[in-house]
Target: Type-3 glutamine synthetase
Amino acid sequence: MLGSTTKTENKGKMWPRNEKGKAVYPSELFGENVFSFKQMAKCLPKPTFASFLKQRRGKSKLDKATADAIAHAARVWAMDRGATHFTHWFQPQTGTTAEKHDAFLSLVPTFMQGGDESFAIDALSGSQLLQSEPDASSFPTGGMRSTFEARGYTIWDTSSPMFIQEGPNGTMVLYIPSVFISYNGEALDEKTILLRSTEVISKAATEFLATLEPEQHVSQVTATVGLEQEFFLVDRRMYTLRNDLKITGRTLVGKLPPRHQQLEDHYFGKIPARVLKTLSDLELDAIKLGIPLKTRHNEVSPAQFEIAPVFEEASLAVDHNLLTMDLLHKVSHRNGLKVLYHSKPFKGVNGSGKHVNWSLSTDRGENLLDPTVRPENNYRFLLMLMAVLKGVHDYSSLLRVAIATSGSEHRLGAAEAPPAITSIFLGDQLSEVLNAVEEQRPLKNFSVPQFQSIRVGGTLVDLKVAPLPNIARDLTDRNRTSPVAFTGNKFEFRALGSNQSPSFLIAMINAAVSAALKDITADLKAALGSKPKLTAEDKLSVIRKYINITKPIRFEGDNYSSSWVETAAARGLPNTPDCPSSYLALKTPQIKSLLSSTLPILSPTELESRFHILNERYTNDLLIESNTLHSIVSQQVLPAAYSYRSKLATSASALKSISADFTPEKLALDSFAPALIKLAEVTERLGAHISEVEAEHKSGTVESTADKARKLLYFDLLEVRSQCDLIEATIPDVDWPMPSYAEILLTF
Model:
C-alpha cells in the first residue's frame, strides 16, 4: 500500500490523494494490488525466490517447500490488504473467465491433542496454491469429457502474477492465474494452448537466429502483444428495456435514426462526461492491477469507445485484456451505464473489434519486426517479414477459424471491418523494398507532391507552414480495410471480435509463423552447408524465394471492393464468409499436421474438441437469437402493431359514422397491412425453422446442425428484422414497445 492514502475510501469518486492532499501519481499506484515478482522477492527468503526463478525458466520443478513458502507469503500479503478468499482464475472455452472462491479460514481439530474442540486458522498451503478442482463436465469440452467424468484441474500459471480484487464491503479476493486441464491432462481452456504456442515460437525463432546470426547468442524470443479494445457504452435504463440486448448482447430489431455516424463527428470527439468518469474509474482500478492502459477515445459509432494498453508479453496481455473487460463491466454499472462487447450490437453502424498488434522480441530487447532506417539491408528483418507473410499465406484458413463467431458474420466486411478474405497490407515503401530485392535493382525514390522527394527509410514531411515543425513520416500508411497490416514495427490483426478471447488467435498466429520460420531456417541451413557463415547472397536468395511464394497474400488496395473478391479468387485465396464453412479447416490434413505433428500445440483429441465446441457455440448462438427474436415479435412487436391498427380502424370508423373524410386513416391502414401480414408470416416460418434446427441438434452431428442453423436461422433473423424495422418506421413512437436506436445511442 502507498503510505496513508485514502484510495479505498474513494470508491471511484475521485483520484487518490496522499496525506498532503496532493494527487498520487499513476506510477506510484501501478501494480499495488499485484503480488509481483518484485513483491515476492521482498517476502521470500533468497534461496526460495531463487528456486522459484529456476522453475520459471524451466530449469527445475517447483518443490513442496518452495510452493508452501510462496503460498504463505501470498496469503499474508493478501490478507494484510483485506483478502478473505482466494480463487484459481482461468479461461474456459466460453470467451470469458471463471473463478471459484475458497476461504482462507480453516478449522484445525484438537482431538488429536486430547482436546474436544477445534480452533480456527487462516491458511493457504502450497498444494492449494498449485491446483484446484472445478467440475470439468460443466464447461465446454467438445466431447472430451462425459457428464459423469467430472474431474478437472486448475493449475497455477507461474508466468502470470497473482493479484487481489476488491469485492463487496471492501473485502478482497486473491486471484491465482491458472490453466484448466481435464483429468487426463487435455487442455480445456484457452491459456494452455497459448502457453504452448509461446514456447513453440520461442524455439523456432531462436533456432532461426542461431542459424542466421550465431554470434548474437539469443536464448529466448517472446511474442509481444498490444490489444486495442472497442466497445459500446449505453444508458443502463435503456438496456434493461431491451430483451434482445440483455439476452443476446445485440439488438435483433431496430431502425437507424436520421443521424448516426454519417457526419463522422463522434470519432475522437469530446468524451461524454459520464463515459469519461467511467473510463477514469476503470483506469484507477487497472493501474492498481498493473494493467498499463495508455489510450482512450471515442470510436466511429455513436456510444462507441476504445481503450488500448502498452505492449506486454502475450499471455500477460491476454490476462490483462480479459481482466479489463471484467473491470469495465463493474465500473460502467457503478456509473449507470452498460458495456456492450458484441461484434455488431447495432445494425447500420460500425461494430466493435479487438485489434491484435503482434510482434516478436528477443531477450536482448530487440524487436525482430523493426525495419530500422534501411530495411533493404536488414536481412534479419526481411526474413522475419517473410516468415509472417508465409505463415499467413499458408494458414490463412486457420486464422479465419480463430476469428469466426456468429457475431463476426454481421461485422466482417460490413464497411468497418476486414472481410473474410485474409490478405496482408505492407504499404508502398515496404512493398518497394521487396520488389527491389526480388528484381535485384536499386530502390526507387518516391516523389511526393508539394513535399520533398523521399526514399524508403527517409521520413520527413515539410508542412510548408513556418511555425510548424517537419514531422516524421511512418514507413507505411494505414489500411483500415486489411485483415492484417504491417504498422511500423508490428503486424495488426484487425478481424477479431470485441467479445472474443484473444488467446486462440494469438496461439494460431504463433503456430503459423513458427511453421514458416522452420521452413526458412531449413533453407538457410541448406545455403550455409559447410561454410562457416552465411553470405549476404545466401540470405538474399532465401528472401527472394519467399517474396515470390508469398505474393498472393499481399494486397495494397481496398479490401471492401467487389473487384478484390475476384482478384483474390484468381490468386487462390480462400473466401469463407460463414462460420461453419470456416470451421472445416480444422479437419484438413494440413491443419491437423501443423498443430498436432509439426508443432505440439493441440493433440488430435483437443483439435477435434475445438471443432465440436466452435460448431456447438455457433448453433446455440443462433438458436438463442432466434428464440429471443420470435418472443420479441410475438409478445411485443405484433401486439403493438395490432393495437396501432385497431386505433386506426376505430378512428376511421368513428369518422365514417359522422360522415367525415377518413381517407388518411384508410390509406394508413391499407399501407400498414402488407408489412404486418408479412411480419406474421416470416415469424411463423422462423418458429418452424427453430423446431427443425432443434430437432437436428438432438439427432444430428454438431457439423450438420451448425450448417442447418446457418442456412435457415441466419437468414430468417435478417428477414424478420427487416419486417420489424418497417413496422417501427410506421408505428407512432409512443406505441413502440422498446427504446429506439436514437434513445439508446444518443442518450448519456
